Amino acid sequence: MRILIIEDSPLLGQFLQKGLDQEGHVTVWSKTIDDALEQFWSNNFDAVIADRRLPDGDGLDFLKVIREEKAGTIIIMLTSMNEPESRLEGLQAGADDYIGKPFSFGELVFRLNRLVYKHASTHGIKIGKLRIDPSGHRAWINDSPVNLTAKEFSILLVLASKTGRVVEGTQLLAQVWGEHEQDSLDKVHVFINRLRKKIGKEMITTVRGLGYILDSPTEMEG
């Protein structure tokens, strides 16, 4: 997932970027609202984590601009302005969540993942030319329906839940088949190949010895 961090503190900005990168996300760090807006309109971000007290204004100014143009982006305010009235102001402005400083990184990741799941269930998942409706068990490539078996769709959903990150073959085996035997990994490879034929072989990359990555080619190059 691509995440824009808006934080003027060098120490906290580096901490967030390093932690989220280790979680498998692709991050861009901005220290001002102006730079954040430039980055946002130049890239395709799935989520934004923003401070409020920034050198050139209130992070809510950024939020309001984005909500006017691109309501689907997940936005979390991460700020020391944590009084009840400030939290209400942020949520009313369109923040999906509002977390006060000091904070737990584990809680931030948990809340982010929960919002991603909720957003996917409501709006679907879009990865380049691929669109997935988790609740309807349907998928499209360039708006053309893709005919997937139940197992193929389950594999696609597991991969999509960690877009851009490696999903181990053993994880697919456990989540899709409920099996844990290494000897059964061949069936995962067979189904991955079937899936590649239906959604495009360039959408799924094999990381030898590790697993598989689902992502759009353009996003992977970025």
Describe this structure in words.
- By secondary structure, this protein is of the alpha/beta class.
- The protein has two domains: 2-123, Response regulator (Rossmann fold); 125-221, Orthogonal Bundle (Arc Repressor Mutant, subunit A).
- The protein is 46% helix and 23% strand.
- The chain is built from nine helices and 14 strands.
- The longest helix is centred in the middle third of the chain and has 19 residues, at 105-123.
- The protein starts with a strand and ends with a helix.
Secondary-structure topology with pairs:
Elements: E1 2-6, H1 10-22, E2 26-30, H2 33-42, E3 47-50, E4 53-54, E5 57-58, H3 59-69, E6 74-79, H4 84-93, E7 97-100, H5 105-123, E8 125-127, E9 130-133, E10 138-141, E11 144-145, H6 150-160, E12 167-168, H7 169-177, H8 185-199, E13 204-207, E14 211-214, H9 217-221
Parallel strand pairs: 1-2, 1-3, 3-6, 6-7
Antiparallel strand pairs: 4-5, 8-9, 9-10, 10-11, 12-14, 13-14
Q: What is the molecular shape?
A: elongated
Task: Write down the CATH class of the largest domain.
Answer: Alpha Beta
Q: How many domains comprise the coordinates?
A: 2
Rg, rounded, reads 19 Å
- The CATH architecture of the largest domain comes to 3-Layer(aba) Sandwich
CATH topology label of the largest domain: Rossmann fold
Q: Count helical runs.
A: 9
Strand content: 15-25%
- The neighbouring-strand order within the major sheet is 2-1-3-6-7
In the CATH hierarchy, what is the superfamily of the largest domain?
Response regulator
Contiguous runs where pLDDT drops below 50 for at least 5 residues: none
Count of extended strands: 14
Q: Can you summarize the main beta sheet?
A: 5 strands, parallel
Q: What structural category arises from helix and sheet content?
A: alpha/beta
State the separation between the terminal residues, measured CA to CA: 12 Å
